[in-house]
Specification:
2 copies of one chain form a homodimer. Chain A is of the alpha+beta class. Chain A has 2 domains: 3-66, Arc Repressor Mutant, subunit A, CATH 1.10.10; 75-228, Chorismate lyase-like (Chorismate lyase, 3-Layer(aba) Sandwich), CATH 3.40.1410.10. Chain A has 8 helices and 10 strands. In chain A, the strands form 3 sheets. Chain A has a 6-stranded antiparallel beta sheet. A two-stranded antiparallel sheet of chain A has the order 1-2. In chain A, strands 3-10 form a two-stranded parallel ribbon. The longest helix of chain A has 15 residues, at 3-17. Residues 81-86 of chain A have low confidence and may be disordered. Chains A, B: Keywords: DNA-binding, Transcription, Transcription regulation. Chains A, B: Residues 1-69 form the HTH gntR-type domain. Chains A, B: This is GntR family transcriptional regulator.
Chain lengths: 234, 234
């Protein structure tokens, strides 16, 4: 872990441990530099990351302040990446429905920019949050980047596997979302009625090289899923 | 407009004008400094903002690359702030249903951290996108910050009014979302059936001072609303 990442973690932990509230002021740059024994540029970098994450806000000429959302029980909509890792607040489990190496459909091929003949791993899972059904997830991983997958791997965090075992860096994603009515198959899996409402999310994940490597579709159980999003004015 | 903001706009415009595609490489820092006649720190700041906005991605040691989402017709879920301004792609209109100065309910008071006796402007609008119903919006503005509101002001962009006429800076927001079934009143306004699906969003907007000034509830028409969200891995 690099120096600024350590500082990021320490400042965040400090806010939690000391029960700091929204609007509470953090020490000055000088004091933070002394406290963590790092340079000003490391503090600047760490604070920018904490601001992006919605942990603090900075007011030019006035200081750095704590930002805390008030509600618990909401899933961070921007951090689906770290699904299993980040949701410390929740207990996540998966039931694997399928793991297959397949020829992608035209739609999947176009989204993932697959080359001709390129194969993808299709993974279908039912995901649980605190032992309740959270969503149906269908993912397509390019074999080019994920040469091997199995049922037992898919039972755990796939992104953890991709990052730790395969050494890939997942860098950003595009999400597309709308609300719809469940069809018969979906409602059966989610144990709901056909026609019940659902949040439908398509997500394209990119590696740090800018290449798309995973295309996923999620259908969320409307009674078991609620999300929060922290925006920063730009 | 500050120097780096100008560079942000110019680089973005340049990407659009030259039809640059995802993965296309931008000039080096040196070339950008020359091209826009600014310092390195201004370029760094501009590129960081463009990265946050999902316009580019940066690969350490390798360069700066264009990031473009492929789908049109989706609303930027993180930029509801600039609703009327940012949605150049869409035509936005509002039908004002109510503008009243009221005593806030306990729920509104708690969200906005109102002082005792503090009043709020309640604004209810039906919002249209390309002449189709987009959502029902109920907003509560603290009179402390928004001393005056009228029906004709509410017909236009309220955030534009708040920023331009009142000189306030809207800095960040917390969104909470889930999917639900429409009740009778909502379905009537949206011209849908009771029980039809809807995205329900509660949003708290903060000024640059960290003070909450607007609490809003939106109920979206499921057939006329779709969103995109660009996440950055952190």
């Amino acid at each position: 872990m690099s120096k600024y990442q350590k500082v990021v973690e320490q400042i965040e932990q400090n806010i939690i441990d000391n029960h700091l509230q929204q609007g509470d002021k953090l020490p000055t740059f000088q004091d933070l530099m002394k406290q963590y024994d790092v340079s000003k540029s490391t503090i600047v970098k760490a604070l920018n990351i904490l601001e992006k994450r919605g942990v603090i806000y900075q007011i030019q000429g006035s200081g750095v302040f704590v930002r805390r959302r008030k509600r618990t029980g909401y899933i961070n909509f921007l951090e689906s990446q770290g699904f299993t890792a980040d949701l410390k607040e929740f207990q996540m489990k998966s039931k694997v429905l399928a793991v297959e190496l397949i020829q992608p459909s035209e739609e999947v091929r176009a989204n993932l920019k697959c080359e001709a003949e390129e194969q993808v791993y299709f993974v279908k899972r039912l995901r649980f949050i605190n032992d309740q059904i959270l969503c149906i997830e269908e993912s397509y991983y390019r074999q080019k980047f994920v040469p091997y997958l199995s049922r037992s791997i898919a039972e755990e965090s796939l992104f953890h596997y991709v990052e730790k075992a395969l050494g890939l860096t997942i860098s950003f994603s595009d999400k597309y979302l709308h609300v719809k009515k469940l069809d018969e198959k979906e409602s059966e899996l989610l144990e709901l009625e056909t026609g019940d409402p659902a949040l439908f999310v398509e997500e394209l994940f990119y590696l740090s090289t800018g290449e798309p490597f995973d295309f996923s579709r999620m259908v969320y159980h409307y009674e078991h899923s609620q999300f929060f999003v922290q925006s920063n004015g730009l």
